[in-house]
Structures are given as C-alpha cells and as structure tokens.
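Human: You know discrete backbone vocabularies at least as well as I do. Show me how you would write down a chain together with its backbone fold. No explanation is needed for now; the record alone will do.

Assistant:
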Amino acid sequence: MRRRLAAMVLAMAVMAPVGIQPAQANTPAGTQTAVADIKEWVNVISTAWNLIKSVLGSGGPSIADAINQISAKIEQAKTEILLHIDAIATAEAKACARHAVVEFADVNLFNPDVLQAWTQNVTGCAILIDSLLGSVTDKGQQDQLGLALNIAGPIAVAARIKTGFSTSLLTETIRHGNNAIIAQLVPTCRQWTVIDPPTTETTYHCDAYNGDWAEGFQSTYRGRPQGPPINRSAVENQATRNTSRALAQAILPTMPA
C-alpha cells in the first residue's frame, strides 16, 4: 500500500510543473484565517504599497488620488479586515488599528491640524503593533497583529506623505514587523525515512500553529532519486499559507526600498 501511494505521488510530481511542492496539504475546519482572506489582504496591501511607491516616484498619481484608490480597496475588504482587528487581545492595538481603517477614507477632508494629529496617532499605532510583536508569545495573537500591522502600516505611510512627514523610518519599522512575523510563525517540521528495499521514501512534514499542515516527499529506487529533492521552504510556506506569515512574505517585496 505504501509503495502504491509513493508511486502515485511520484506520478503526480512528474506530470505537474516543476516546483509543485508540497505533495499534500490540509486545512482543518475552523482555521483562524482562511486562504481567501489572505489572498484578499495581499491584494489590498500590495495595491497600497504600489500606489505609495508611484507617489514617491516620478509621474505617479497625486497622494490625494492614491489615498482615494487605497481607501476604495480597503472598503472592498473592510468587513474581513475589521473582523481580524477585533480578534486582537490588546485593547490599545485593537482600537488604534480600527481607528486607522475607519477614518482613512476621510483623510483628504481633514484640515491641516487634524491631519497632522491623526497622522501622528496612526504612526504610533503601527509602531505599537511592531513593539507588541516582540513581546506577545501567543501565536494566534501574533498572527492577528501581523494582519493589523499590514493595514495600519501603509495607511500611516500614506498619511505621512500627505502631511509632508518623512516615511523611511516608519517603513523600516513595518519591514521589521513583517520579518518578525515570518520568524515567529514558522511551522514545526520533522522528517522521517521509511526503508522498504529497494525503495526508500522520505517525508518532510510541517504543522502550522493553526492546525494547517503540508508534506513533501521524495523516493529513491535502488539508490537513485525519483524526481527532484524536497523543497523544504515550499513545504513550510504551504503549511503557513493561511496566516499573516504568508501575507508578510508576499508584501515585503512590494514595499518601498
């Protein structure tokens, strides 16, 4: 039975494009953040950063136009965004992240004094969330904080551009928080090998904190590898596909240098 399963996995690997790893993955019922949510967050936040980069570059939209476009993207996913923000245990972080999302649509209407004060507040929110990521040990809370950072962060940067404030240090803070999330939510992985001459089968299995898991396989026949080696990073990333670790990995390359 085990050999037949290995043969089926190998056949699938041969038929599929290179890099189709891991061979198996599972998302149990009740997973805290659904993969559709993560894809929507990536869509919203990558759009925000790309608009911000366009504003900072030459020939891009005005910051007022960029804010309107970012706000429209956030509006499409506002229900899910606020749902995850409300799951944050720290009251101050929850309140400031919700405040940022709710009021961002009206930023272009703020008078200069209100805009400056609001911008400083939302900047402090992003910094607070980054700080909490260094002190919170519960992975579920780390996950929700990672989502909140990636909505409050670009909102704060956009507001700072409109106000005329600098953005580089805040951008680095957001980058730091995303790197922390990638490290904190790395899955627990183990590897084992089953020898059944003339076949040897190796499995690399990873469990994410939320119950998701993924596996990669490789077989050898009479000492000869059957297919490519296991892509361990791909298995790890597949296991955490429904967490803010996946969001952080997708967003970091889109952020301003």
Remarks:
- The chain has two domains: 2-28+188-239, 35-185+242-254.
